[in-house]
Amino acid sequence: MAVDPNSLEGQNLRKSFPLVTMPAQQFNLLCAEISVSEIPKGNFIFTRHDSTESFIYLIDGSISLEAGTLQVEIINADSDSAKFALAHQFPRKISARAINNVRYISLNLNAFEQKEVQYEEKESVYMIDNEGSEKEAKSKGDWMSTLLKSPIFQRLPAMNLQQVIMSLQEIKLNKGEVLFRQGDIGDYYYLVREGRCTLSRKATERAKEIILTELGENETFGEDALLSGEPRSMTITAATDMVLSRIDKERFIKLIKTPALKYITYPKLLEEQAKDTAPLILDIRPVNKYNETHIEGSRNLPFFSLRMQLKDLKKETKKIIIICADGTLSEAAAFTLIKNKIDAVILKGGMQNVPKNTSHTGEATFTIDDNDQKSHIFFERDETASEDISSTIDQRTNNPGSLNQETELDLQKENTHLKAENTRLSNELDSAKKQYRMLYKQTEKLKDILDKLKSSK
Fold it and tell me: What is the pLDDT of residue 12?
């Protein structure tokens, strides 16, 4: 049976997010196609690990959110927590058990978008008294719906999500206005609600500013400086008139970063490496630091080029462990990966928590000759370690009597180590080649622009 928008159920549902921002006609259409479900005391609305993707709103009664035998929270239908979808993470991290007879509504994740389409189709049927305010409300519903479905925000407890939405400040920019400049101190995290902005950067203080990319509606930015403590790495300029929502650094760290990011210790990392499904260990330090010392089997992808490799990283089926010097920059990297639906955890404390005698050394250089447009790429292993292994093998080969079963096992282990080292070097070579191809294309584009400028003079 459909929900009457003017009934108690309809009024309670109307107070929920993001439905509170939905245009009236659109909300009425939604109510016409949904119904209230009921479950008796003691039954579960959903259980832990349930992967059904739907927003559940509590209309009447009380539920207990539980993780095994642990009671996490009790939510009453008239509380602020009930204004948000229950345990909106997928798959569910906790179970929801009815404390008394409970009534609730379940909405498909795409319900908001579907209602928008139907509303547009029926627009000519209804007389809109305040077209501007309806359009504004529709826009609010869009960005809030996107926020709820974001991989980052799905990791937040309902109470955090509520506080985030309540703390958001709205700001407006005119076309051409600069939001912040490269080198500024990071103070806010932003969400684009309307309009577009460009991200630009100078390689050096005297270099020409280059536009790197453009962001549009429902996209977020600004977390790198908040997480790493470094100055802003880019300049943000409004490409059109804009409306943004922002949250300050203190609330961002407390409400978003803390529950969204996950960490792993070095001993636990070693356990993960020993499994058949070993994770991808991504070292985001500069190449020279990686060459000095790194964890065996790790892949070097400097932080500045991380976003350029997102397409390839999305193809990874393994869990990704991020490593930097002290764990700080890894937080910014992990945040970026999670936003792009890539599972990532952080090595707690970074390389400073890795025992020195367990790390490995090597050298990698990557240069481009702009004159002949050729790349010179080479990688070298730790020659000392290589000579030690070769010496051991030679000694044992010259003394056949010493080739007992234990010695053969040692040789097999050394051979396995060399194969793993070869695989690592091959991966580094592939990564360097990809970076070279990307830089080469950018160079060609810049040359074309320069030629056009010269010809226009």
Answer: 78
Reduced to 3 states, what is the DSSP secondary structure of residue 314?
coil
- Taking only the tens place, the pLDDT of each residue in 103-126 is 998 887 666 654 443 434 333 333
The CA-atom distances, in angstroms, between 354 and each of 25, 69, 142, 268, 384 are 59, 36, 45, 12, 21
Question: Where along the chain do its domains lie?
Answer: 8-158, 168-258, 261-358, 362-456
Contact (Cβ atoms closer than 8 angstroms) between residue 39 and residue 68: no
Give the start-end residues of each E strand in 86-194: 95-98, 102-108, 169-173, 178-180, 188-194
* Dist. CA 348–CA 25, nearest whole Å: 50
Beta-ladder partners of 198: 214, 237
Which DSSP letter does residue 342 get?
-
- The tens digit of pLDDT for each residue in 290-315 reads 999 999 889 999 998 888 888 889 88
| Orientation angle between helical segments 24-31 and 111-121, nearest 10 degrees | 110
- The answer to whether the beta carbons of residues 62 and 101 sit under 8 Å apart is no
Distance CA 16, CA 43 (A): 24
At residue 235, φ and ψ (nearest 5 deg) are: -105, 135
- CATH (one of 3.50.50.60, 2.60.120.10, 3.40.50.150, 1.10.940.10) for 168-258: 2.60.120.10
Q: What is the CATH number of domain 8-158?
A: 2.60.120.10
Cβ pair 296, 360 in contact under 8 A:
yes
CA-based R_g, the chain, Å = 28
Mean pLDDT of the chain: 78
Q: Do residues 150 and 339 make contact, with C-beta atoms less than 8 angstroms apart?
A: yes
Q: What is the CATH number of domain 261-358?
A: 3.40.250.10
pLDDT tens figures, 388-423:
444 444 444 444 444 455 555 556 656 666 676 677
C-alpha span between 457 and 449 (Å, rounded):
13
Does the pLDDT value for residue 375 go beyond 70? no
